[in-house]
Amino acid sequence: MSTRQFGARVERNIDPKLLRGEGAFVDDIPLPDALHVAFLRSPHARARIVSIDASAAKRHPGVAAIYTSDDIGTLDVEMPLLIPHPSMKNPKTQRPLARGDVHYVGQTVAMVVAVDRYTAEDAAALIEVEYEPLPLEMDLAKALTDDAPLVHADVPNNLAAHFIQTSGNPDDAFARAEHVTKITVQVDRSTAAPMECRAVAARWDAVSGELTVWDGTQAPISVRGGLASVFELDEDKVRVIAPDVGGGFGQKVLLFYPDELLVPMAAMRLGRPVKYIEDRRENFLGSSQERTQIHTIELAALRTGEVIGLRDFFLHDTGAFIPYGIAVAQVASTSIAGPYRIPNIFVEFKAVYTPTVQVTPYRGCGRPQACFALERAMDQLAEELGLDRFEIRRRNLIAEKEFPYEREGLLFADGLKVTLDSGQYGKALAMAAAELGAESFAAEQAKARAEGRYLGLGLACYVEGTGLGPYEGGHVKIHPITGKVYVNTGLSTQGQGHDTVFAQIVADQLGVSPQDVIVVEGDTKAFDWGVATFASRAAVVSGNAIHKTALTVRKKVIEAAANMLDVDPDQIELRDSAAWVKGSNRFAPLAAIATASNPLRYAFNKAAQAATQFARASKHDGPPLADGQAPGLEATDYYSPSQSTWAYGVHGAIIEVDPGLCTVKIRKYVCIHDCGNMINPMIVEGQVLGGIAQGIGGALYEHLDYQADGNLANASLMDFLVPYATEIPNVSILHLETPTPLNPLGVKGVGEAGCIAVGAVVASGVEDALRPFGALKFHQVPLSPNMISYALETAGY
Amino acid sequence: MKPSLFGYQAPASIEEAISILAGDPDAVVLAGGQTLLPAMNFRAANPSTLVDIQHVADLRGIEVGTEIIIVKAMTRHREFELDAAVARVNPLVAEVMQHVAHVPIRNRGTVVGSLCHADPSAEMPMLLVLLGGSVIAQGPSGRREIAAEDFFQSFLTTARERDEIITEARFPVLPKGAGWAFDEVTRRHGDYAIAGVGCVLSLDDRGRASRVQLAACGIADTPVRLKEAENILTGTTLGASDLDAAVAASGAAVTQPDEIHVSHTYRRRALGTLIRRIVTMAAQRATQMETA
Amino acid sequence: MARTMKAAIPDRSADAEVDVSMTVNGEAVSRSVSVRMLLSDFLRHELRLTGTHVGCEHGVCGCCTVLLNGRAGRSCLTLAVQANGYDIRTIESVASADGTLHPVQQAFKECHGLQCGYCTPGMVMNIVARFEEPGKLDLTDEGIRDLLSGNLCRCTGYLNIIAAVRRAAELLGRA
Ligand SMILES: Cc1cc2nc3c(=O)[nH]c(=O)nc-3n(C[C@H](O)[C@H](O)[C@H](O)COP(=O)(O)OP(=O)(O)OC[C@H]3O[C@@H](n4cnc5c(N)ncnc54)[C@H](O)[C@@H]3O)c2cc1C
Ligand code: FES
Ligand code: FES
Description:
The structure holds three protein chains of three kinds. Chain A folds into four domains: 32-134 and 194-286, Alpha-Beta Complex (Aldehyde Oxidoreductase, domain 3), CATH 3.90.1170; 136-190 and 289-396, 2-Layer Sandwich (Aldehyde Oxidoreductase, domain 4); 419-460 and 646-797, Aldehyde Oxidoreductase, domain 4, CATH 3.30.365.10; 469-639, 2-Layer Sandwich (Aldehyde Oxidoreductase, domain 4), CATH 3.30.365.10. In chain A, 28% of the residues lie in helices and 25% in strands. Chain A is an alpha+beta fold. In chain A, strand 22 (572-575) and strand 23 form a beta hairpin. Chain A contains 21 helices and 29 strands. Chain A is globular and about 95 Å long. Chain B folds into three domains: 7-52, Uridine Diphospho-n-acetylenolpyruvylglucosamine Reductase, domain 2 (2-Layer Sandwich); 57-172, Uridine Diphospho-n-acetylenolpyruvylglucosamine Reductase, domain 3; 179-285, Enolase-like, domain 1 (2-Layer Sandwich), CATH 3.30.390.50. Chain B is 34% helix and 24% strand. Chain B has twelve helices and 14 strands. In chain B, strand 2, helix 2 (36-41) and strand 3 form a beta-alpha-beta unit. In chain B, helix 10 (227-233) packs antiparallel against helix 11 and helix 11 (240-250) packs across helix 12 (264-285). Chain C has six helices and five strands. In chain C, strands 2-1-5-3-4 form a five-stranded mixed sheet, sandwiched between helices. The A-B interface holds A 117-118, 121-122, 125, 279-281, 658, 660-663, 701, 703, 705, 713, 716, 718, 721, 723-724, 726-727, 784-786, 789-790, 792-793 and B 1-5, 38, 42-43, 102, 185, 187-191, 194, 260-263, 265-266, 269-270, 272-274, 276-277. The structure holds flavin-adenine dinucleotide and FE2/S2 (inorganic) cluster (2 copies). The site of one FE2/S2 (inorganic) cluster (FES) has 12 residues of chain C, from loops. One FE2/S2 (inorganic) cluster (FES) sits between chains C (114-120, 153-156) and A (195, 246-247, 495).
């Protein structure tokens, strides 16, 4: 047998290309004669457009066209509401170019197409727009009041959605409670900040009537469907390619961003390729953001620490529009009880319009907020009951024998009841305690304090519903000449290493090396059934689809090989890119089997001779292709999960706070995590580490500073503080592998796991470190030096 | 984020550069471009003409004298940082330089460019003020020397006339046996300072501070010499109560108003902490001298 | 219809052009370009060396890092005209002509030091530049972090890149 690839630390197929600088990101695609786009964006958060005068801009040399909402014909409509939900009363989505009102700073008002981006920016500056500024309210709670200025004139109280979910009997639980703890916590506005900003390029071929769009999107197939429908073209005539994409983290899955419609439109109208390469400032001002939620959470407990009920009410900032529905708030509300039993839950949220960039999922998608609320409340409960923070969690974690654990009444983002499928929660907590040295920490802490150093231990647990449906597909084909295996699926990749993990899955079934499996995705011409890359779903949904497909191809290979080698199918084994008769040295290469499986008339090369009508391999009774048989070694299949799989983990850290400078240093970071069977532990660790770094950004650094007038004060990487290597501590990751019973591969998603718990861990650790100064509370992230200074000041230091 | 249109000139002599500046009120000097180009890419700066001084031979190099280090206008941060002769006579330079941006920026950005930009949170202006250095300005009407404390006038504003070129900066060497230290607080490593403090001091044979220089960046609209604190510390053994007094006297130097993420109180707290630590470290590094 | 439209559309901007000559990856190149063209755009769009990436155009991310006369620098904060007469090296020059990876690149692959690969060319150029400087390398955790500071990566969380630097030092006999 070849060594099993599933579970191995296989180096990535895609790396050499990327390392040599041969990646092909949207702006790298050569498009001769391309025109370039710049947008004029609103400088006001709320205003009425009185007039737009583009005449000077149109005359500017090098300008090909300028479009305002008056010039875009049938595109001048509100863009799709992607995920409808009854909790939304009057859901608002954006027009490609503002008409009438503007609703946030950065909203697209006009589009310039010119010979280069420099000229396009010159022309954009020449467009004269007269605005009549309108009043606005940035504060979530105030925005809900009756006399608050409105983001949309016809949405009273700026209330975008209101939703309540109940599980069990929370009122009864609170009535029975021996202790209730309550806190209000806040997670601030942030953004994904992928290193490659968004980008779209389009070419219209007037002769063939084909539109090709290169889009750095996480959802090429969905974009293709949308474009075909908007432009009334056959789906076959629209090809959307997501080439190499420089990170996404959720931000690159929205249909549509204005440019995704307007760039193809301009290419069709002007008969020249058109490119829009978003710059960093625009990424801050125009591309989706996430995170602001204010939770007021109460835990009803017995004196033993057992939590019997939870009530959470939270405000969710959805920005000026709600194209992605309530997904973020819904994920937050259904993750609110974490890995704990807590059988009685009441969770209510109000989604509020604010005059800011629209909110759609960013890695974590509501989970970091829910985790922060719950875990900070658990810490407070522990303190009030005089229990150790590990102990209170130990007493509430769902035990192995309790799976599947259902939360009746809570519907997850897939519309299905929350059902935690499997895990070893208690073991994960014990591992975290051991790895952190929790037992000896108190002594270490005391010793450090004696030296004037302030150490604290931070801790948090999380769960993550992953692998959402509806479905994905896989196509697997063995190439007749090379014997290499081609695999397609409907996703696109932004660095997750799909090309390698999918190759590993297929390699095991077909007895080839992963390097001989070529995965092509992100191109609707290659495969066009599927949804998108989001919600930690690739390995689960596409992975299982590809696995199923590979099994079918395996069966075909074995049958054909048995035929060729004149043995029973159960005598065949696949390894080293060939089918072998067990215990002998007789074999047929996969290339030959693939060739022979395709009855040929013409021998175009030597290998093909074996498959022509007078050759031995094709000899059998009946017609060359039997009824119901397909040529070649190829199959397509789909996987549609019955429900989400729930990954989980425990994070902890030893944190040092310098009260003099109010700085925080993470001395040690520990992550215990379980995403079921790991296809490639190296890639899993990469995902987790990347998530933790983003989590550290969210815990200590990254915060979008919206001013009272709706301006974003830090729309640059100079002032929006994405951590460098100097800010990221060493992390020890320990894996648990509890296979999920829900899918054949036993895998759960991992893409978002790393970032969820970090904020809670850091706040918990800082509180612990500063205990000698009193019971200082840290209920908001990112946790800045200023907040520490303020807390110390309030405590008299 | 592309710059708006401008003209470009690459003069070979200082005189030529000055005459271009004198002839065009919106022309500006381009040195390393590490401040100017980001501003231009944001279209926050839209000069009519860039006068690229990198080809002016007279503006290159470092000269280390017995009392003064002369840093010519096109000297990159990294050259100043790594210069062995500089390190011998003023080890504080390299220590401060660690905190200026990152190596690839220091490879291009110039020391004098940083002084001319006069960001009050920047480290180089503070260093010049701390050491009591100066710059040489050359314009249509000749050369003049401007002392550091006169040069930095307010936020991003210097005493340089717009048709003057700063041809060099003059950083004094450290007194023999002097102790020195610098540290700052930033959000991320390499960012501009929220507050930074530098110190140079000498101890007499009884362990008393015979001379103390103390300066800070990030706390006001220019880099500041903390003169009151210097006076308080001079003649003391730099004990805890001396430091307390110095810190108390320095609070008023923090004039930067509340910002969203950095309150006035926080800046004062950070400044106090830095003063204590930096003076203590400088004292540890100082060798006690025979003279009294 | 497309045809007539196309004729009406301009092909070049009205910017005045200057001649720019430099050595890029060992080859002399000359072009006439607008004075305001950034070196990053010059490399990417005039010379089609698209391995140099652009992530911010204000000097923070480091994606655009190339070697300017042997030293790592930001191509987004350098004008093409400023680089007149310079010797420039980009990521395309790092692997051997037959595609064999440079030890730094090899180490990134072994250590899973890249995910989306967008920051990678800038990271590699910065590391290669430091490895080419004489003197001892500081391979402590702190030292490597300092080396990497100045390049943002949003995917990896850096730890595998730190491992890759160490591995590269081993491969190059600099450990
Ligand atoms: C990401 C990033 C981080 C940074 N972090 C820091 C930091 O932490 N601390 C810090 O101090 N700096 C920081 N900087 C700025 C950097 O140090 C700059 O290099 C420096 O401030 C300016 O030097 P320059 O040679 O690049 O000047 P330029 O950008 O060329 O010029 C700056 C200004 O000075 C003028 N000027 C330059 N030279 C002269 C001269 N000889 N005569 C007259 N006028 C002149 C120019 O006209 C311009 O107005 C950072 C920069 C970046 C991009
Ligand atoms: S693109 Fe040059 S540093 Fe970001
Ligand atoms: S690998 Fe994606 S940004 Fe570094």
